[in-house]
Every structure is written in C-alpha cells, then in structure tokens.
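Request: Give me one sample?
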Amino acid sequence: MGEEVVSKNFIEQEIDKDLREGVYDNVCTRFPPEPNGYLHIGHAKSILLNYGLAQKYGGKFHLRFDDTNPMKEDMEFVESIKADVQWLGAEYGEHLYFASDYFDIMYECAVKLIKKGKAYVCDLSPEEIRQYRGTLTEPGKNSPYRDRSVEENLALFEAMKNGEYKDGEKVLRAKIDMASPNINMRDPIIYRVAHMTHHNTGDKWCIYPMYDFAHPIEDAVEKITHSICTLEFEDHRPLYDWVVRECEFDPAPRQIEFAKLYLTNVVTGKRYIKKLVQEGIVDGWDDPRLVSIAALRRRGFTPESIKMFVEMCGVSKSQSSVDYAMLEYCIREDLKMKRPRMMAVLDPIRLVIDNYPEGEREYLDVANNLENEELGMRQLPFERELYIEREDFMIEPPKKYFRLFPGNEVRLMHAYFVKCVGYETDEEGNVTVVHATYDPETKAGSGFTGRKVKGTIHWVPASCAQKAEVRLYENLIDEEKGVYNKEDGSLNLNPHSLEIRKNCYVEPSFQDAKAYDSFQFVRNGYFCIDARDSEPDALVFNRIVSLKSSFKLPK
C-alpha cells in the first residue's frame, strides 16, 4: 500500500517550510488573551489551532495573558480563561505567563529605541495625533516634537515613568514613516501615561506599553516561533516585524494570520455581553444562551464537540460565517453514542392504569442506549400511577394522531400496551387524569406478537419520580431580524429565548447524577444538569439541543 496523503492547511505548510529551511529548529506557539472578558467560541478555534500545532510538531504551547491595559482587566477573567483553556484540553503545563512580567524588558526596549533615534516623546493631544496621522489616501505629517534630541527624549521618558505627567499629557511614539501607505507605521504610540493600579504589578508603573509594541516583545522573549493570529492583525504585521527587528531579538518570531470564526445569529462582542449581564437580560457571562466557552460548558457542550466543530470549520485566509446549526450537529454526534437515553416528562398529566394491582411495583430491565451496549442496563420501576406528557393525550385527536385518546391503544415505552378508557378534567376543562387498562401479555421483551400499535409514549412512575426544573433554550437573537438593529445598533433579542418549566418529572435513575452530567431525554432532546443552580434534591436541567437538526453535511 502507498503512503497516506495528509492534507495540510496553509499554516502547516508555512511551518514545514520554515523547519525545512532552518529558520527554526522547533515550534513554539501561544494563546495570548487579554483578560477583559470571558472567552467565546471564536477563541476556542484559536486555542485549539495553536495547541494543535504545538502537539503536531512536538513543540511547546504557552498561555500568556496580554495584561497591558489595567483599565479593563480583572482577575475574574484570568481565572475564567484558565478554566476554559484547561477544559478544552490545551495543556500549557508550566508555560503560564503574564505580559506584565515583561514590563521591565519592554521599558528597556523603549529606551533602546530612543537611543537609536527610533522613538521620541510627543506632546500632541490625542485629537492632534489623529489629525496629523493623515488618511488612507493622504500621508500624515511629522509631529513638531519628532526631532527632539536623544538626550531630551530619554529625560522626558524617565519623567513619564516617574509620574511627573498627567494621563494623556505625553506619549512615546515610534519614529518610522509618517508617509507610509500603512497607517499603522505612521509613528504609532508605543507607551502612554496611565496612573492606574495593575492587577499584577500594583502601582509600580504609571506608564504602560501599547498592544502593538508589547505583543511582539512578549513573543520574542518567550521564543515563540509562530505567532498565529486573526486576519485583522495582517496590517499590523509590518509594525510587529519592525519592533522585533529594531529591538534586536534573535531568533525573531513570525506572525501568520488566519480567518476568524464567525457564527450566524450569536452575540460575541464583549461590550454587548457585558451590557446583557449588567441589565439582567442574561444571568451572567456563562448564561447558556451565550456562546462564551463557559456558557457552552454550562449548557452541556463537550470539549470533543467543540473540537469537531473547529475541525469542520477548517483553517483558511477567507472570512466566512458558519451556521449555528453546525455546532448543534457536532454536539449531537458526540453525545448520541456516549449518553444514556432516559425518560423525563416535561408537561405532566397523571395516567392511572385501573386494572394494575394497587400497591404493586415491578422493575423493568431497560437498555441505557440501544446503539451502544457498553452503556449497560438499568432497572426502571413500573406501577399503577404514572406521569405522561400532556401532548400525548387528546380527547378529540386529528387524523394520524397515534398517541392516547379514548378507545385507542399505545405502548408505554419499555413496558406494556395500555388502552385509554376515560379521563378526568378540572372546572376549566383541562385534563388532569387519564385512565387506562393494560394487557399483561404485552410486556416489552416478552415476544408478544398478537397485535401491533402505532404509537409509543414515554412515562415516569408517579410515586418515585424525581421532580426537576427544565430550562428550554432558543437562540438569544431573533434570527429573522439578525443580530443588530440597523437603526440604533441595539441587539434584536428573541423574547422566547428561555422557557422555564418547574414541574417536570424525571425517572428515579437520576438519583446519583451530578453537575455537567448529560443525557438524552427520549423524544425531548439532549439535556445537562446545570452546574450553578442544581442541588442533589432539586435538579435543574438545561436543554443542550433538540433531537432534530436543520444542518446537512455537505456531500
């Protein structure tokens, strides 16, 4: 047999070329989040891509917090990001870093640039800097402070560091080219004055480096070989390379860009999510209607399903959007063979089997998953009074309704045939109890072939079923209107994104279930025990996804 041909994405092809040509003799990648919010599904692609490349080439993977902006950062976000990365299986081991650990090195690099005549202190206001920068079609013009001497710049920069200037009063700018066609190269700001306490360095610094200056230095200090980032940084690459070159780092890391992961009809913007949280529209950054990694985990998505989704999306240079239904397809595919298929009644009415002996109970042997024998069997108690779904009984059914109605016979899943012989209603005409008789010869698995029924319904035993709260989720966004309102930029929210049912019943087999355990509820979808609100005697289930899919695999 010939060797298997392995298709490689464009990043892998570039890494192969670098290794072959001796540019690097190893591979080291990183995931560098800014700790100013929770990570979302798009970040999962970056995490798994960077970690996967390190794994594939036998290299190292770093988690580094890009904490250069104390105005927006918080330790809550640091801890949430660590939890997300670990949950996805991206092992960084001892390679956990903070950009703020390199502030001394960054300061030294800035001083080096000043001494080389490559940076200067500028007194222009932010508005004046914007005016001097020019436009996409017109070159910028030099700052009147651009030609300050090295000695003056060194003295002013040290005074900035020593807290002698107010916020915004002075900045340090790289001296590159105000006529460059790339606006990022028109003397960008590399340091600003900010009298703020930093979560890691406290009050040691009152000047902080800008992202475009700090990031390449962080990569270079950690000896990152391939700095994999999203396409919006493509125009920043010349500045990245300039910083590494002028600060004289060797070997120099290489930046490679790929297309972001965009999902249709979801909210990923931190500003919008923060507003949803603050206004109480969602119950936190991990609300299961969001697509933050914490929210997906709480809803019941698995790391394996996220990996499958990311692999199906692929790696490319072209921007595109992916249907949310594809993510739902991946979790169904991951769970269908792994999880037991249990019975839960979400809108209960009582079913009384009049001819079943009162006080008697028998135990039925039930397969946990008919498609996976390895999941074994469980015993399910059966008795005279059960709960069934309200929609499984109708007094006057339409044609082709094969469930319970007066005179009709159905199978109770895993149990017997029952025939409806009557019902009870309340004063408003709502059905409260259905009466039936059962045929003892029709027990499931007994080999009975005397007659057939067209309908099978699920049930739980009334006396020992466990009461539960079930949360049915739909998209947070009104899919017909799209994510954003064109008139005012607000979110088009779906008023029916959450339905809470408090009087549900699940079979007693859930007695040992714990947070994050997931199951298929027969006919109702896949559900997960909520990690935040569940207690042993008061289970709360989140619907992960319904059973039916609108997603079709491409042929």
Observations:
- The longest strand covers residues 417-425.
- The longest helix spans residues 41-56.
- The radius of gyration is 31 Å.
